[in-house]
Automatic annotation (TrEMBL):
Source organism superkingdom: Bacteria
Record Pfam families: DUF5753, HTH_31
HTH cro/C1-type domain location: 18-73
Official protein name in the record: Transcriptional regulator
Gene3D superfamilies in UniProt: lambda repressor-like DNA-binding domains (1.10.260.40)
């Protein structure tokens, strides 16, 4: 395993391997849980990478699955040890969406649809501050600053000279019409959005109100794809108290098809830039 793979991805890969061993043994998660005197939910969380995996967990599971090759056991034990290391985001303390950050950090491409706001990877500091303050009215200034810092750190994937994150963002018109902070904040944000849309690895499209109902009316979501074929794509849906991660092939496919419909119904890249430029003029009182 490459040394630069982050702990979130290590947990996913280890969980996938443990699931494969269980299925080869012909056992259900419930049967494994009964053998180890643990809950079935623990086995599920270990296999989907949402829970930290200890070397003891690996040892016990390999025992149940009767894995006799010590090289395989040693490899899995090392993966468990590596998966408990901390990513850069842990230095900021408790981040509610740390699992997502870990996935985004390792992703090769990201397709995101946002009906309400400019996506975090394309936000200016002023916009991010105003947005977080409005969305979390009980957050302290320190909490807001921490979230802003994390957001700005995430953006380094876009600015990277080598292997930058390939980002495709489809926005609803509401995302550019909603005045976050002030008109000046919006002018700076939309001008920055136009600047970022010029990058070869960043594509921005917009769905105007006049398009009416479309496949994205159900809400925001993102599709993450990874450079290693062993890592399955993930659909991420953000929630208020918990987030949803979909990894089953049929679920990812449904969202991927829906995203293709969104891209087809949105304004093309040039039309989108022209539209956003006109909105900037509206904020500046030039129209």
């Amino acid at each position: 395993m490459a040394s630069n793979v982050n702990p979130t991805v290590r947990r996913r890969r280890l969980g996938q391997e443990l699931r494969r061993l269980r299925e080869l043994k012909g056992m259900t998660a419930e049967e494994v849980a009964e053998r180890l005197l643990v809950s079935q939910s623990k086995i599920s969380r270990l296999e989907n990478g949402r829970r930290s995996i200890s070397q003891r967990d690996v040892r016990d599971l390999c025992g149940v699955y009767e894995v006799e090759d010590h090289r395989i056991v040693d490899s899995l034990m090392q993966m468990a040890k590596d998966s408990r290391q901390q990513g850069w985001w842990h230095s900021f303390g408790d981040i509610p969406y740390s699992v997502y950050i870990g996935l985004e950090t390792d992703a090769a491409s990201l397709r995101v649809y946002d009906p309400q706001v400019v996506p975090g990877l394309l936000q200016t500091r002023s916009y991010a501050e105003a947005l977080i303050q409005g969305a979390l009215p009980e957050a302290t200034p320190a909490d807001i600053e921490k979230r802003v810092q994390v957001r700005l750190r995430r953006q380094e994937r876009i600015a990277a000279e080598e292997n930058p994150l390939r980002l495709w963002a489809v926005l609803d018109e509401a995302a550019v019409r909603r005045e976050v902070g002030s008109k000046q904040v919006m002018i700076e944000q939309l001008e920055y959005l136009l600047e970022m849309s010029q990058l070869p690895h960043v594509t921005v499209q917009l769905i105007p109100f006049q398009m009416g109902a479309h496949p994205g009316v159900s809400g925001q979501y993102a599709i993450l794809e990874f450079p290693d074929a062993a890592d399955s794509s993930v659909v991420y849906i953000e929630g208020v108290t918990s987030d949803l991660y979909l990894e089953k092939a049929q679920d990812v496919q449904k969202y991927a098809v829906m995203y293709e419909h969104l891209r087809a119904q949105a304004l093309n890249v040039d039309q989108t830039r022209e539209f956003i430029a006109d909105v900037v003029k509206d904020y500046a009182g030039l129209r």
